[in-house]
Specification:
Shape: globular
Distance between the termini: 25 Å
CATH class: Alpha Beta
Number of helices: 3
Number of strands: 8
Strand order of the largest sheet: 1-2-8-7-6-5-4-3
Helix content: 10-25%
Strand content: over 45%
Oligomer: single chain
Length: 162
Amino acid sequence: MDTSPSPFRIGKQGDRGILVSRGFSSPGQRILRAHIDPDIAPLWLGSADMRLLECHIDPRPGGRFSYRWMTEDMGEIGVSGQFIDLAETRIRHEETYTPAWSHGPVQVTTEIAPEITALGHGTLLTLSLRYHARTTRDLVLSSPMAEGIEASYRRLDALLEG
């Protein structure tokens, strides 16, 4: 019997959305903190072929954030945005990308919920992204984004377990 937290999953959500989910053994508060703490986020955002160059986070409603990475295949890419809501189990924000391929801001909600496994408790993280058009959503799903998120979540898991 597999008793590990839920594996990484990504798929369509409605007509313009993407839903990402992954289980972690760590408590939810540590996972959410790692998303908004400017000292912790740089330790896990990115992968071997997507090096983080810049990370600025002002973690409060109305606060802004920006990240820039250097990738092997696409060159420099970035995301910036503004926090809408920071709650005990949820982060909501809007983000835009550089280069600007998303045709406008993307609504993003990151939520955590308890997950029960055979050996105890864990946390299920869900990331919900809503784009302005189905074609943009489909473009994202055909990109290497899933591999980048999965690699970052593996780094986050190792950081939280270490």
